[in-house]
Design brief:
By secondary structure, this protein is of the alpha+beta class. Helices cover 23% and strands 28% of the residues. Bound molecules: flavin-adenine dinucleotide and uridine-diphosphate-2(N-acetylglucosaminyl) butyric acid.
Length: 338
């Protein structure tokens, strides 16, 4: 286990904001769990478990410890003619995992290509994109309970997956360190092309009957056009969740704002496009200090160079207030704000 004192987190968060951690532990092998337990009495109020740092906003230093789980590994634990149950260590890079699975002839996560971060963080908010979410392929999650060092398996239904939500975001899981995820992947490819834009992208690539790899390529092309690259411009992807409202509220809003994108969901609810609401309020491309709304995508806040986490949060608050005033909708942030 590697240990650092007063460690800079600037290169460990995709907003690239400066913040320090009093202590930093890097876990690289199974034995490191015991070493960590011996050195740290984990306190979720002051300590932070970090993956790729692509869904957090640091507005202050971390008084306690940051734990980076960098353990890697993949193994097939069960297979049949149609499916494979794959166990993936939390420190694996998510996008590399997607590409690797495609190389093995396995499909199921191709629509989730190019999402930054680690496999271990994927269940946290049930990562989703282009018509697929982790819950569609997730079998179970292995977690280490930081209070006693015991490992348990959390099955699919215990994960309580929802839109950008899971049990791992709740207080019940605040001592859980995710060590592995298990995914059920397919040998026979079933394309999921319903999300607006994928079909069109494949058309423009001259592809009629795509392979899983070609769907991945199409998703990558769309994402590269739409979203700023965090290795160039600090950002955390969508800064707000798309608001979910009742069906009746969605119909009222649609009557008033005919162009508002509305996506019907289960139980007579509907998801609204937060990007559209933000763009209507004139925020797209606007800066406040060193933070700005991307001119590529209105839902993405960016660090224009020297932003502090506080500046980004101030911009987010100002956006939230104007959406509330104009549409009477309370936006909720997606990244964890510290
Ligand atoms: P981190 O930011 O390191 O952590 C996120 C949260 O998970 C924190 O609360 C952290 O404490 C917790 N955590 C991390 N690892 C563990 C662990 N092992 N055990 C317990 N808790 C842990 N998300 C989507 O859903 N869909 C998208 O399309 C998408 N696109 C994005 C595009 C860009 C350009 C960027 C920058 C982000 C995007 N995201 C998207 C958000 C982000 O990439 C995902 O949420 C990703 O899963 C975060 O992984 P991470 O390893 O960086 O997590
Ligand atoms: N739109 C605007 N202005 C913009 C951008 C988009 O009005 O600047 C409108 C357009 O009408 C567009 C619609 O918003 O059709 C939807 O845009 P997009 O397809 O980009 O999807 P999104 O709802 O903005 C969500 C996820 C993304 C995910 C994409 C693709 C959330 C909060 N965000 O974005 O996830 O990649 O769908 O599935 O659900 C993330 O979570 O970090 C993330 C990037």
């Amino acid at each position: 286990m590697k240990r650092f004192d007063n460690a800079s987190l600037k290169h460990l968060n995709s907003f690239a904001v400066e913040a320090h951690a009093r202590r930093l532990f890097v876990l690289e092998s199974e034995n490191d769990f015991q070493a960590l337990q011996a050195e740290l009495k984990f306190n979720p109020a002051t300590d932070l478990i970090l993956g790729g740092g692509s869904n957090i906003l640091l507005t202050k230093n971390i008084d306690g410890a940051v734990i980076l789980n960098r353990m890697t590994g993949k193994r097939i634990i069960e297979e049949s003619a149609d499916t494979v149950l794959l166990e993936v260590s939390a420190g694996e890079n998510w996008h590399d995992l997607v590409l690797w699975s495609l190389e093995q002839g396995l499909s199921g996560i191709e629509n989730l290509s190019l999402i930054p971060g680690c496999a271990g963080a994927a269940p946290m908010q049930n990562i989703g994109a282009y018509g697929v979410e982790l819950a569609d392929v997730l079998d179970s999650v292995r977690v280490l309970d930081m209070t006693d060092g015991n490992s348990i398996d959390v099955n699919h239904s215990q994960c309580q997956f929802g839109y950008r939500h899971s049990r791992f975001k709740t207080v019940a899981a605040r001592y859980d360190l995710i060590t592995h995820i298990r995914l059920r992947l397919h040998r026979n490819f079933i394309p999921r092309l319903t999300y607006a834009g994928i079909d069109k992208e494949l058309d423009s690539m001259g592809i009629d009957k795509p392979t899983a790899k070609q769907v991945s390529d199409a998703v990558i092309r769309i994402r590269r056009r739409k979203l700023p690259d965090p290795s160039v411009t600090g950002n955390a992807g969508s800064f707000f969740k798309n608001p979910v409202v009742s069906g009746s509220r969605a119909r009222l809003l649609k009557n008033e704002f005919a162009k508002l994108p509305v996506y019907p969901m289960n139980n007579d609810t509907a998801k609204l496009s937060a990007a559209w609401l933000i763009e209507q309020c004139g925020w797209k491309g606007q800066a406040m200090g060193n933070a700005a709304v991307s001119d590529q995508h209105a839902l993405v806040l960016i660090n224009t160079g020297k932003a502090t986490g506080r500046e980004i949060l101030d911009l987010a608050d100002a956006i939230g207030e104007s959406i509330k005033r104009r549409f009477d909708i309370q936006l909720q942030t997606e990244p964890q704000i510290l």
